[in-house]
Design a protein that fits this description.
The chain is mostly beta strands. It has 2 helices and 15 strands.
């Protein structure tokens, strides 16, 4: 069944990409040689390696995300994420989770200086130790605004779970849908350095976690960036032992 779902998903993504490309060609006049070269040169791809360490009273869970993202045009972005987990409470078991494919429509709505991005995606299990029982589906939106050196972002996300899926913030597998809220206020000290305050909230049936903490970002160059942060659990109601902190750090590369 999972192989069939994967085959259908790959076919759907290929069909969507082909349909989108055809629609773009029909909508615009045929570009000249120089214009076609400009379109090719404007294509950009980003690679991000992100680590998250969840510290519980019973041990730690480490998550390593490899993320590849690119734009189909100026407004539509695609990102593909493959997570790898290690759970000390499971005899240091290491394995992959679900590969997640997401689409984001940037600036879908703009009003009073605010902009809203809309996103949705699907998670496909890969038969790993931390794979879901079946595909998961998610959707949400992100509201953002900028005032001089301050950037504010508020996102909401809802994930539909069929039977069970692995969520390290809850300390393991969950069997219910998940609602998440992420709030970030960033002060840009300079073009290269930024300081953030973050509030993250996660809810599922009978369980919840709220974390608060700072993070920083630094651009070593125009195509290399670094981020790091720590979040402290201020409210939690979990089926497992209490969570203390979430430590994150990562590197981003632009191509």
């Amino acid at each position: 069944m999972k192989n069939l779902v994967k085959t259908v998903l790959v076919g759907f993504v290929a069909l969507f990409a082909n349909t989108f490309a055809v629609a773009q060609e029909v909508e615009a006049a045929k570009p000249q040689r120089g214009q076609r070269q400009d379109r090719v040169d404007s294509f950009k791809m980003n690679l991000t390696e992100q680590f998250s360490i969840y510290s519980f009273d019973s041990g730690t869970i480490t998550q390593w995300d490899t993320k590849l993202d690119f734009k189909l045009d100026n407004d539509v972005k695609v990102d593909i994420v493959l997570p790898v987990f290690n759970d000390e409470s499971q005899a240091n078991s290491t394995g992959v989770g679900d590969v997640n494919v997401n689409l984001t429509y940037d600036n879908a709505v703009e009003f009073l200086g605010f902009s809203v991005d809309i996103f949705g995606g699907v998670g496909v299990p890969l038969d790993g130790d931390y794979s879901s029982s079946d595909c998961t589906f998610s959707g949400g939106a992100a509201l953002s605004a900028t005032w001089e050196a301050l950037d504010f972002t508020q996102s909401v996300k809802y994930t539909l779970v069929n039977d069970y899926t692995y969520m390290p913030v809850f300390g393991g597998f969950v069997e219910d849908n998940v609602f998440a809220l992420e709030s970030t206020l960033k002060y840009n000290v300079s073009d290269k350095f930024g300081i953030c305050g973050n509030i993250d909230q996660f809810y599922t049936d009978g369980q919840n976690v709220i974390t608060v903490g700072p993070s920083v970002s630094y651009n070593f160059a125009h195509n290399i960036s670094f981020n790091a942060g720590v979040a402290f659990a201020v409210t939690e109601d979990l089926d497992v032992e209490d969570m203390d902190t979430v430590t994150t750090f990562g590197l981003g590369f632009k191509f």
